[in-house]
């Protein structure tokens, strides 16, 4: 079963002579319960792919289905609601709210989704990402790796079917990056979630099940990451 399926997705920015085709007729499915890396040179369409797949941006043409739902059938309000309840997104720059505590940052998606913030859920997720004891701190009082853990906990808290991560290790030192990748791997193996991650880092791709390589807005290859035991 595909957790995410793009069918003939094209995304253009601008018009006339300034038109850029960021995604060019991309058709690809991402299997439920898999960890996928999206790689490719700068400007190849990785961010656009992630944003379209996650419903943060709409394709110019083609369809995106997530968990069986055609995102094109949702209006803006419905799409926002869908993102808040069904998708987790981890940004490269963490995107934490500086005035909120760690706990308030992590539970924000629950409040946005009008869901309860029961203690067990919050405790379970914060323990899983190794943030126990830091819940009362503010982002400025955390290291980069700890901030990324908060961003991942925030993406996990609603138990989304799919977690999209844009360069989640781009700002981290190699050891911390390994910890973060192990966390994302556990979301796949232990929680049966699907993770789609944009990365520049070949070492990060080693943790995934498959690598989708983009060039000039097209999928040019799709290979299993052979060094990783496949969990299906
Ligand atoms: P990557 O993430 O691989 O660097 P992007 O998806 O950011 O690639 O960009 C793909 C192409 O689309 C690039 O040529 C980029 O300049 C262009 N692009 C991306 N976002 C916009 C935008 N908002 N407006 C115009 N062009 C854009
Ligand atoms: P990354 O590839 O590291 O994700 P980019 O530098 O490609 O980041 O893009 C950062 C932001 O700028 C994205 O929101 C993207 O849509 C936007 N962007 C990228 N290229 C252009 C462009 N040529 N014109 C306008 N916005 C762009």
For the biggest sheet, the summary is:
6 strands, mixed
Structural class: alpha/beta
Order of helices and strands: EEEHEEHEHHHEHEHEE
Bound molecules: adenosine-5'-diphosphate
The overall average pLDDT, rounded, is: 91
Organism: Streptomyces flavalbus
Domain ABC transporter: 4-232
Protein name: ABC transporter ATP-binding protein
Keywords: ATP-binding, Nucleotide-binding, Transport
Topology of helices and strands:
Elements: E1 2-13, E2 20-31, E3 35-39, H1 46-53, E4 61-66, E5 69-70, H2 76-86, E6 87-90, H3 102-112, H4 119-128, H5 144-156, E7 162-166, H6 174-189, E8 194-198, H7 202-205, E9 210-215, E10 218-224
Parallel strand pairs: 3-8, 3-9, 6-7, 7-8
Antiparallel strand pairs: 1-2, 1-4, 4-5, 9-10
Helix pairs in contact: 3-5, 5-6
Could you give a quick summary of the protein structure above?
The protein is built from seven helices and ten strands. The chain has 232 residues and is an alpha/beta fold.
Report on the architecture of this protein.
- The chain has 232 residues and is an alpha/beta fold.
- It is 31% helix and 28% strand.
- The chain has 7 helices and 10 strands.
- It has helices at 46-53, 76-86, 102-112, 119-128, 144-156, 174-189, 202-205; strands at residues 2-13, 20-31, 35-39, 61-66, 69-70, 87-90, 162-166, 194-198, 210-215, 218-224.
- The chain has a 6-stranded mixed sheet, with helices on both faces. A 4-stranded antiparallel sheet has the order 2-1-4-5, covered by helices on one side.
- Strand 4 (61-66) and strand 5 (69-70) form a beta hairpin.
- Helix 3 runs parallel beside helix 5 and helix 5 (144-156) packs parallel to helix 6 (174-189).
- The longest helix is centred in the last third of the chain and has 16 residues, at 174-189.
- The protein is globular.
- The termini are close together.
- The relative contact order is 0.19.
- Bound molecules: adenosine-5'-diphosphate (2 copies).
- One adenosine-5'-diphosphate binds at residues 47, 166.
- One adenosine-5'-diphosphate (ADP) is lined by residues 47, 166.
